[in-house]
Write a structure and sequence with these properties.
Blueprint (H helix, E strand, L loop, with lengths): L13 E7 L10 H14 L4 E8 L3 E8 L2 H6 L17 H24 L11 E5 L2 H17 L13 H5 L8 H7 L3 H7 L10
Antiparallel strand pairs: 1-3, 1-4, 2-3
Length: 204
């Protein structure tokens, strides 16, 4: 089994991306922290992947993404200075995505450290990732990500503000692939019903 920190990132594939603070340290201390991190996800990840689900907890986070196709990556006007995506090497999907993720971590960590008068690394590196190889696994991962607040005894997950559960059910503007997520569950009603079953992957 491939190491969860070295699993290759390939174009047109789904991944569960997750990580936590160094030694389980708190990485989100205020509503502003959560919002800043999500803004960085929009800024740096949306150009290279589609986001299907997310959940930010006080000391860790989960993202479910689909890497854009080779054609989409190749047609991008430069993502920073990354240039044209290629199959291997510096501009492969693996490195393009990892570079963008590093930008999120670096930008967020610098702001967090400045705000909290701390120094040094904040988030573990490299980030953990798992390839999603089937629709059933994809559906269960989405449910698991949304259930995180309940699994960690924080709050009933349907009421949690820093996951994609409420956004997927709402009609407000979103960068999430809302329609595609609902389609996976057939409809909104089954999306809600499916989230009543318990999913436990015990990542941490």
């Amino acid at each position: 089994m491939a190491d969860i920190r070295t699993t290759p990132i390939e174009a047109d594939c789904f991944y569960h991306i997750y990580n936590r603070g160094i030694n389980g340290e708190t990485i989100f201390r205020s509503e502003r922290n959560y919002e800043f991190f999500l803004n960085k996800v929009s800024e740096f990840l949306i150009p290279v992947c589609d986001v299907y689900a997310y959940c930010l907890m006080s000391n860790h986070f989960h993202l479910l993404v689909k890497i854009k196709s080779d054609l989409e990556l190749n047609s991008l006007v430069k993502v920073g200075n990354l240039g044209k995506a290629t199959k291997t090497g510096l501009h492969s999907p693996q490195n393009v995505f990892s570079k963008q993720f590093s930008r999120i971590f670096n930008s967020y960590s610098q702001a967090f450290n400045k705000e909290n008068k701390r120094h040094g690394a904040l988030i573990e590196s490299p980030f953990k990732r798992k390839l999603i190889a089937s629709d059933e696994y994809l559906i269960n991962r989405i449910i698991y990500i949304h259930q995180n607040p309940k699994n960690h005894s924080v709050i009933e997950f349907t009421k949690y503000n820093f996951s994609s559960y409420q956004s997927i059910l709402s009609k407000s503007k979103t960068l999430l692939r809302r329609d595609e997520v609902i389609e996976l569950f057939d409809d909104r009603e089954n999306f809600v019903l499916s989230h009543q079953k318990v999913i436990d992957f015990d990542e941490f």
